[in-house]
């Protein structure tokens, strides 16, 4: 009888003993994109930006200490995919991302991905088939929505940074560049020589941006749960909206009266257009 009780105790306790430990003092490493300001970037030796503030606040709200570690986006996602990082942001998920990573219920924010052309050669693009045979600058590792990403006849010119795409467009080395509205606004403010040179000719996608969690890191599932809990707390007490308003960005689209146009739109729980495998 005693032996049977001992075996039963071992059956119950062994999974708990083998589970990854989580303590209040532990600091978890989260990968952050290093060059996507004003959302996330390494500036003055620190990861800064709107989504960086949201991630820090969400984990703080769930009493979880994190360190945001900057990486180029493609490197950040690969380290997360293989389990060397617990998570990485910012991601615009598609079916492949959803199958390779754990995705939380709570997105960070939403913004438009625009197709930009030179101001002196801009024509509206009403059908993506108009891009057949044309060169379009895209950032390495970025997702631009299934309609664009699945185009077979477009010539994608990969660049390290959105800034490089606009510079290539300025020198007519590509016909278009794809970039988020908020990123373009920040670049035009930081690099005045770019302002007024470009106009958007199509909206490629309006994705929700997420933190992607690893399927192979031992603490990723725990951190995903804490992130979702923290984000819900931010929405409940108004801190989410306070962070968004602190980073309020003007629309990058030129206008005749130079007025401030539509800002970045925020979002609540995702309406996911991709099949979501179980986390």
Automatic annotation (TrEMBL):
| Record domain Solute-binding protein family 3/N-terminal: where | 27-251
* Disordered as annotated region, ranges: 254-279
**Domain of life per record:** Bacteria
Query: Which keywords appear in this protein's UniProt record, sorted alphabetically?
Result: Signal
First and last residue of the signal peptide:
1-24
The record's listing under PANTHER family reads:
AMINO ACID ABC TRANSPORTER SUBSTRATE-BINDING PAAT FAMILY PROTEIN, MEMBRANE-BOUND LYTIC MUREIN TRANSGLYCOSYLASE F
Similarity section: Belongs to the bacterial solute-binding protein 3 family.
**UniProt-recorded name of the protein:** Solute-binding protein family 3/N-terminal domain-containing protein
